[in-house]
């Protein structure tokens, strides 16, 4: 690989077996990397200690190898890098860009329900009303010292003032490149660190993309809106912004996207039923 060659990544979470939607994304990343003369890395996004299972990490490797996909070592596992995420989180906290939130999900639902019509973020989650944003500093320090469970939220208004008003990224596909304006404000005061780990998906993914030198991110359209927030975090953390491509999602017979939570048929099931990798590739347009 020549200096400056493109670097892509496929980044599944080990909370269920891979299905055809994962296969499509993995094959597309590998195909684009090959056509661009670059490489594609594998990343295991296992920050969730409850849902991530070691056996499923091995299963991911088995499924991808069965498809004929192989990745350079070392393969990054997010659970091995909590100290790095904690440092990134603390940097935002020290600059006054994040604050602790002691609200439970039930308390948030009750609070946002008091005002009638509820504004939601792109994932359909009610926007956080800012209950803990203006807590007395002494009270915050006391609650933290007592070990009260909390998340850390990005102070969106302060973050936007710090980062500037213009945000966006370069999107690419077979037709070329185009500029996309981003609107991170629609996420409100997003969670950047969970109660149980010192990060969130959003914080970990922008950190890892920079750490691994990812130049092009190819992922599903269900994450297109999240890119707005990622661009802002990259600016705040002084990280480069990759080029992005958000591919269509595979749908089931009911028109719903394939998902582990809905019991979509896994690659392992298909393999057990006699389907070959060549048939999978052909079905997904990579024959």
Automatic annotation (TrEMBL):
<dbReference type="GO" id="GO:0006424">
    <property type="term" value="P:glutamyl-tRNA aminoacylation"/>
</dbReference>
<keyword id="KW-0648">Protein biosynthesis</keyword>
<dbReference type="InterPro" id="IPR001412">
    <property type="entry name" value="aa-tRNA-synth_I_CS"/>
</dbReference>
<keyword id="KW-0067">ATP-binding</keyword>
<dbReference type="InterPro" id="IPR049940">
    <property type="entry name" value="GluQ/Sye"/>
</dbReference>
<keyword id="KW-0479">Metal-binding</keyword>
<dbReference type="GO" id="GO:0005829">
    <property type="term" value="C:cytosol"/>
</dbReference>
<feature type="domain" description="Glutamyl/glutaminyl-tRNA synthetase class Ib catalytic">
    <location>
        <begin position="8"/>
        <end position="269"/>
    </location>
</feature>
<dbReference type="GO" id="GO:0005524">
    <property type="term" value="F:ATP binding"/>
</dbReference>
<keyword id="KW-0436">Ligase</keyword>
<comment type="similarity">
    <text>Belongs to the class-I aminoacyl-tRNA synthetase family.</text>
</comment>
<dbReference type="Pfam" id="PF00749">
    <property type="entry name" value="tRNA-synt_1c"/>
</dbReference>
<protein>
    <submittedName>
        <fullName>Glutamyl-Q tRNA(Asp) synthetase</fullName>
    </submittedName>
</protein>
<keyword id="KW-0547">Nucleotide-binding</keyword>
<dbReference type="InterPro" id="IPR020058">
    <property type="entry name" value="Glu/Gln-tRNA-synth_Ib_cat-dom"/>
</dbReference>
<dbReference type="GO" id="GO:0004818">
    <property type="term" value="F:glutamate-tRNA ligase activity"/>
</dbReference>
<keyword id="KW-0862">Zinc</keyword>
<dbReference type="InterPro" id="IPR000924">
    <property type="entry name" value="Glu/Gln-tRNA-synth"/>
</dbReference>
<keyword id="KW-0030">Aminoacyl-tRNA synthetase</keyword>
<dbReference type="InterPro" id="IPR014729">
    <property type="entry name" value="Rossmann-like_a/b/a_fold"/>
</dbReference>
